[in-house]
Each structure stands twice: as structure tokens, then as C-alpha cells.
Amino acid sequence: MNAPLPDVPEVRVVGLPQLTQGFDLVERLDLQMHLKVHGPLEPMGGERLAQLAEEISLTGRGGAGFPFGRKLRAVAKATIRRGVRPVVVVNGSEGEPACRKDTVLLNRAPHLILDGALLAAEALGARTLVVVVTRNSTEVSIRAALAERGLSDRRGQRLRARVVRTPERMVSGEASSVIRAVNGGPAIPPGRRERAAESGVGNAPTLLSNAETFAQLAIAARVGAGRYSQHGLDSEPGTVMLTISGQVARPMVVEVPTGVPMRYVLQLAGAPQTPQGVLTGGYHGNWIDSMAVDNCVISKQSMAAVGGALGAGAILPIGPDTCPLGEAQRVANWLAAETAGQCGPCRLGLPAAAGGLSDVLNGGGPAALEALREVTQAVKGRGVCKHPDGSARFFSSTLSAFTDDLAAHVLHGGCGRPTLGTLPLPEPGYQEAVESIPSGEKLAVDWTLCKGHGLCADILPELIRMGRDGYPVLSEASVPTHLRDRAQLAVRRCPELALRLEQGPQERPSRPALPSADRKALGSGRG
Hints:
Mean pLDDT: 88
Strand content: 5-15%
Distance between the termini: 48 Å
Number of helices: 18
Number of domains: 4
CATH architecture of the largest domain: 3-Layer(aba) Sandwich
């Protein structure tokens, strides 16, 4: 089934709209319509802005959930101590195939995001604003929004603003990857941990936060903490943006106040009445069962209490007619292919884990299950970015959530259900051609020729290992670009000529023309 989500799926709202206000009037709020709907926004001092963020308990909406007020104070403190102008970065990188909430906001309400970012930039005294995006549609929309405000990267402007495009990959949205891309490098983690608040873009203190976070800040700055907190729970006030997909009748992005029952949100999208599992928080998140769905509401605290996660706001139910381990296998292969290739846990561990899950599915028995548990545990806490940890969380949650199916595969060779492919994944050829992304090629073996010499596993242990039967086991993941030379070497060195590289479809959709950056401004939008 694997139908990738469109950039802008159906958008719904529960209760009164906040971020989605005006969506019933137009497809995209340009600057003029944005000001009609939301009104002007007055500047706010840094201390008052930090207090506002703390009063509404504003945390990052990209998955990590770090308190925004604390981040703002850290950047201000570093700016004063170092005497260097800070930089504000809007992280609109949404490379996870199950997430579309930020893409919806960037496409339909770009000025709300810019309001929040410019508010923070003015409060901090920043003179540089960078918006990082992953898709054609978001790049077109945000460039048009900057042009409508008369903002560009020209010298001499009081604030210089620019757009940076990153590949549509899981690791591209990690904070250190974003900083590295803005600094002109590849959009992959740098291999060392650095605090952006201390040293980020151009080595300057950098306020980096998710697109929805800045939009929430803009709403709160307009209406005040008291009115903002009238929506949602007292402990987690306001609304959240969710992407609902998986086995649903209507994939959608929905804005809901915190405290709304998860069961209601799933029914809104047409999910199965009794899902056998719901993946919460996206592909770095956790599975919960149908009973947990009935016992939780949309909030970080409530979802965590039943073993779930709000994370990046993706919620994906699967029905009883698909094999949950088969669904997880598809995601596992994709996670393995998303490796940045810079550390062992990512480069070696994730393909090994994906291969281990395949062994379990294909009748490997208890030994295969134990091997999978060991490699998953070995990956945790050892990567240079959050991708290995998030992927290990997905593997561990899968093994814990579907024990009956796991027993059926381990003890009886299968659960008897097909894998329907209900969890969304990108179509082949979606990646940009940069270092360390999947190449679109896969390794294949002609088993009538293979004699089990094992040279291929020695040359390419990241993607090939020797099975218990003495024959190679190949990862289902696409060969990353940075491993392609060694993959070709393994093919050439095979003494039986049994190994080959198979080419998948490589066409990518053409990129639409972008609006000129020096269009006449329609207004400043600063009130």
C-alpha cells in the first residue's frame, strides 16, 4: 500500500483554531491575509519573552521537548558574555515520512512562524535569521513570505534572512545537522556534541527551534499567557499539531487542545475501532496497545504514562489484519538506510538490527530473537546523534508491544497475516544526491552460484554478515552513497560472481521555480 503522505494533507481542528486560524478562508495566508486574521504583533523584550514562554510551559515541538524559555535565556547569556550577535534558526526540516505538521504550517501559515522567529530575533538583538526546510513546497512558500516582508540576505539590511534547503532525511533535522548545513557543510551530525546556544551558526550563539514552536510563541505573544492557557490542560496549556496516518481512512494534520482523548483523534481520522497497535511519536517513538489508547489523552505526560510518546506529533495506528512485525521491518529497513555513516552504532548497528528483525520474521527462532535484543541494546547511548537511540527505541518498543506475534514468528514460523505496508515511507528516489544518503541501489545474491566464501562480509560488514548456515545475510536497506565503492569492490571480489548491485528507480520530481528573493514587500508585518 505504501502511499507517501502528500506535503499538505487534509487539515482539521478540534475546538477553536489557534495555529490553523484562517485555514477555512484561504489555502495559504499571505502577509495581507495573515494580518487580517491574526492582527499586528508588537515587539517584546527578551526577559518578558522568556517569562511568557515559561508561563505557558512552551517546549520544543520537534520531538526533544526542551523548554523554550530556558533555551532563550541560554542564548542571551552567551551573547552577553561573548559580545557576539546571536543567530535565530527556524528548523523546518521534516524528513520523517510520518510527519507533516511543520510542512503544513510552512505552506499555509508561513508568516505565523516568521512572527515568532522575528520576535525572538528582535528580543535577542539578532541580525541573522535562517529558515531551514526540506521540501520544494516549503521552500517556495517561505521564500515568498520573506519576499512579502522585504527580507533577504542582502548586505546592509538591519536583519538578513535566508533559506537553507536540506535533504529529506531523518538525520537532517537533528539540531547539529541543521547547524552544519547552515554553515555550508553536509546535513549530517558533525560527530561531536556542541550546544548551539553557545556556538552554532558561524560560531555565534544560536537560538534554534522547531517551526511549530515559533508559531506557538507568536500566538501566545498576541493573546497573552492567560488567554493562551484557556485552551488545553493546566499542566500543558495550548494546542498541539498532530499528523495522523498509518491505517486510517483519512490521513490528516489536526490541531487539538491538549487533554483531548486519543480515541477521539483516531476516530476523527477513521482509524480501526480496535487497532492492534498505535505508534506514537513517529519512527523514533513507542507503540501502545488499544487498551492504552482508551486510557490516555493528548499530552506528553499522559502518553508517557501508558508507554507512548508525543515526540514529533505523529500518531500511526495499524489494524488487526496486518503483521505488525512486518510493518516494523519496513520501517527498520528505512531507519537503517538513514544512517549518517559516521559511527559504529549507526553504520553497523542499525543494519544489523534490521537484519536481525528479518531473521526473526523468517524463522530464525529464539537464537535470532536473542541476537536482535543484543544488537539493539548495544546501539543505545553510543551514537554521535539521536538517530541510533531513537531507532533502538523503535526496535525495543516493537518487541515489547507485539509479544503474541513475536511468539508466533519465533515458535511457529509466522503469524499468518500479510504485511499490508500501512506505515508511510518515501517512494524510491526521494533523496537528494549528497554524501551518505541511500544510493537507490541494493545488494542481491544469486543463490545458485554462492558458495559461502564470506569475502563480501569481510569487505562490507555494515551491510553483509554471515548467517548461522554459513551463507551471507544481506541488509534490506539501500546501499548508502558513502559505502557504494566498497559495495562495488565486494561485487568484484566475489569468486563465484554471485553478488551484484541492483539499481532501483532514480527519478526525482522536478523542482518548481522559486519566487524571486527581491520582490517588492507587501508590508513588514511588525505592527
